[in-house]
Write a structure and sequence with these properties.
The protein is 48% helix and 16% strand. It is α/β, with parallel strands linked by helices.
């Protein structure tokens, strides 16, 4: 069975830099993203349209290349977690985790006994069709590779930050900036950025307090360096859509004068 390079990287204390993938559907693009120097990509199923078959193809290519694929499902529930793990996705980015009860459900769905109650399957892409290990060793190995990030996207979530952050089986913490400021009632206001930085700092502090990895979405190199220097090990830079649009817009502006 394949190990999870992203989890191994953060356990070594190495910065992991990725990008959202919203529109690209060809899994061969992983070779390009890897050649560009990215450490992982994050496929979005919540606000984008990839099918489970497309995600499965990305998972298989990612495992073959040792290029980690992270996925945000439409909902962080047992059904989606089970399917993603069984098609070969180790890294799950869980949206709208507002309560400790929801976090506990995520942990239970993502780990086999004795750490959880993940549904049992046979030979699948999730174990590289390799059943050669003694069964309990195989389940432990699989449990150890899973990497669960939870998103704090509401005021309610921050009320429970200590309970969620301290939970065994939650590997990383982050926030969803736009949904969060919408819920806090500051979207589009002059105080939005300062409120977001305050909440980002809370996430960093909770990660440090409970020994969890901190993940952060950034839109510039300057912002990436800011949060890297604050101890963030998972940096998600922009999206492939934004990079393409900005690159073409800049080039066309120069060409057309």
């Amino acid at each position: 069975m394949k190990a999870n390079p992203l989890k191994a990287g953060v356990e070594r204390g190495e910065l992991q830099i990725g990008t959202w993938v919203n529109m690209t559907r060809n899994p061969a693009s992983l070779t390009m993203f890897k050649q560009a120097g990215l450490d992982f990509i994050r496929l979005d199923m919540e606000h984008s349209s990839p099918s489970i078959e497309t995600v499965a193809n990305f998972a298989a290519m990612g495992r073959a290349l040792d290029m980690p694929v992270m996925v945000r499902p439409p909902e962080a529930n047992r059904e989606w977690i089970t399917r993603l793990l069984d098609i070969g996705i180790y890294n799950i980015h869980c949206p709208q985790v507002d309560t400790p009860e929801h976090a506990a459900e995520i942990v239970a769905a993502s780990r086999y006994t004795p750490r959880g109650s993940r549904g049992m399957a046979g030979a699948t892409p999730g174990n590289d069709f390799d059943l050669s290990m003694p069964v309990m060793d195989r389940l432990k190995f699989a449990n150890d590779q899973v990497f669960i990030t939870v998103m704090f996207e509401s005021a309610q979530a921050f009320e429970h930050i200590d309970e969620i952050a301290s939970m065994d089986g939650i590997d990383a913490l982050t926030l969803g900036p736009q949904d969060l400021v919408q819920d806090l009632g500051v979207f589009g206001t002059t105080e939005m950025n300062s409120v977001l930085d305050e909440k980002r700092t809370q996430i960093v502090e909770a990660s440090n307090k409970y020994g969890k990895t901190c993940a952060m979405l950034v839109s510039s190199a300057e912002q990436a360096r800011q949060w890297r220097d604050a101890g963030v090990l998972l940096v998600n830079y922009s999206t492939e859509v934004s990079v393409l649009m900005e690159g073409y817009a800049s080039a066309l502006s120069e060409i057309r004068g």
